[in-house]
Inverse folding.
């Protein structure tokens, strides 16, 4: 099932009980969708491959800006899968490493190898990437990248996120602290609704298998 930004926004507004979109700004909805696209990553990430080419001197290379989690590094010419470095007492890194090479995501945004990559040597990096997030200028007919089966989870999380400003506002004004004559009053119904939607999101995503991850 193909989901466009416009149809996704409409589904979120219907979930919020505001199909006309009078209570929620487009900016807030776009932010909510972006947060939801990050929230589904542990279950449904975007998969990608990037290549690193050695220059005969460097050991550290910048990762793609959309990298969420690096999965595996493969020497292109031989197909050998390199081991990830383990920062543990008794383990070794550096040029004296017994194996061909190893790698570690360090520092942030970079992958660092124990040994220099030879000039023109190519390593393929298999990684999980962030889904492309919409902006307020993204056309409504833009097709969303995640598969159709992920969209219910996106709707639930985005709806919960969109409610948060109202929940925070209620907490600050404290206009729900008056005691009712009977029953148990809910002091912050928006917060309760957001929590309920997040629990539904978790249940929905757990219906799907978590993404397979490489053995390091």
């Amino acid at each position: 099932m193909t989901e466009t930004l416009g149809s996704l926004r409409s589904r979120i507004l219907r979930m919020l009980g505001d199909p006309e979109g009078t209570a929620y700004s487009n900016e807030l909805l776009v932010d909510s969708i972006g947060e939801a696209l990050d929230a589904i990553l542990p279950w449904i990430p975007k998969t990608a491959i990037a290549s690193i080419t050695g220059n005969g001197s460097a050991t550290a290379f910048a990762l793609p800006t959309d990298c969420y989690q690096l999965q595996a590094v493969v020497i292109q010419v031989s197909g050998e899968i390199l081991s990830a470095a383990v920062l543990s007492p008794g383990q070794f890194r550096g040029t004296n490493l017994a194996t061909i090479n190893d790698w570690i995501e360090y520092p942030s945004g970079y992958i660092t190898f124990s040994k220099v990559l030879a000039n023109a040597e190519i390593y393929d990096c298999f990684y999980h990437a962030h889904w492309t997030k919409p902006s307020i200028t993204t056309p409504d007919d833009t097709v969303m990248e995640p598969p159709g089966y992920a969209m219910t989870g996106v709707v639930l999380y985005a709806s919960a996120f969109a409610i948060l400003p109202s929940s925070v506002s209620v907490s600050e004004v404290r206009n729900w602290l008056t005691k009712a004559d009977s029953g148990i009053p809910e002091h912050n119904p928006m917060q309760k609704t957001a929590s309920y939607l997040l629990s539904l999101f978790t249940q929905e995503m757990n219906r799907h298998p978590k993404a397979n991850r490489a053995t390091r």
Q: What stands out?
A: The chain has a mean pLDDT of 90. The first helix runs from residue 5 to 15. The longest strand covers residues 67-75. The chain has two domains: 5-40+133-206, 46-129.
